[in-house]
Every structure is written in structure tokens, then in C-alpha cells.
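Re: the 191-residue chain
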Amino acid sequence: MSQHFRSDIRGTEVVEMFPERVKNKTFVLSDLSKCGLAATTADALAYGGAGTIIFLGHSQPELQPVIDHINRKHPQAKIIFITANTGSLASMHAAAATIKELAVPIDGIVGFSRVMAAAWEVTADGIESHFQKNYLCHFVLVNQLLDTMPAGSRVVVMTTSIRREVPAPTWTDVNFSVSLVEGPWVEFFWK
């Protein structure tokens, strides 16, 4: 079955097209913020009848407005918050272990990128912050949860755009030290 999506399609319209993929399913949304695409995705999944939505974020107080909104609007959706810091791979391992303790199949994982053109820095793990927080942390999470994902489960990682005017990344320098010369926007578009 082929679907054609308009550029202005709403998340609620998408879940209406795939009710069997959402209703009573369990989703993990990683690195949420209180507004924007992540919050809208959570709301659309709840609208579609998701059974459980597991939020991974820096702090529950930051996400409490989103949790309260979904609880009010879609009381059938169970919301679980787990603290996870994308700047720490150990934190992502711990979050995955906590999710596994729930003993539920994970039907979908959506990872969101929150770092954009920030100053160059390395995380406590010694990895360039954009790369770790926007990609590597989600890779670790998904790999830790693969055995909880039944056939047909899906993973989506929201990424940045690819731009022709940005030089190709140098894969021998995953910490992007060249970006110290090129600037944060080149570094951002590489990722």
C-alpha cells in the first residue's frame, strides 16, 4: 500500500492512516523537550491510541507540561518518564536497563536531536557533543533494546539536513576537530 504525504500533513493524520501500527502499542521517545516536534509526536501517538509512551529526557519537571497535556487529552495512554542524559552513554545504558525491567515489547523508538550548532565540546565520554547527543546515544539505546522489539517494530532518528555547500565529513576524525576551524554550522551540517 503506497501512501503519499503532503508537506503540510499533521501527525494525527499519519496515525489515522496506520491505526494498527499505533493502537495499544508501546513507544520510546528519546531526548524529548517540552515543545516542538518531540512533543507533537508524543501527542499524535497518544491521539492514535498508543498504549504506553515512554519518555526519555533530562528532567521530568521540564516535560511535565507535555505529560499533563497528554494525560488530560488522551487518558488512555500510559506515560512513563525515565531520566536519560544523552551526554552520557552510561545514562543511556541505564535508561535501556530500566525500560527492559518494564518487560513490555517496544513497538517503536523515536530519537530526537536537540543540539544544533552549539560551540564545540566533548562529552564526559570524550566524544564530540553533537555526534554523541544527536546520534550515538540513540544508537546505544536502540542496540540495548533490540531484544525487546518484536518483528515489525520501527526506529526513527530525527536528523539534520544534508547540504551541498558543506564539505564531506572526515570519518577519521569523529570528534570533528576540523570544525574548530570551519565553525559550528559546518560541524552541525556534517551530522
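The mean pLDDT is 86.
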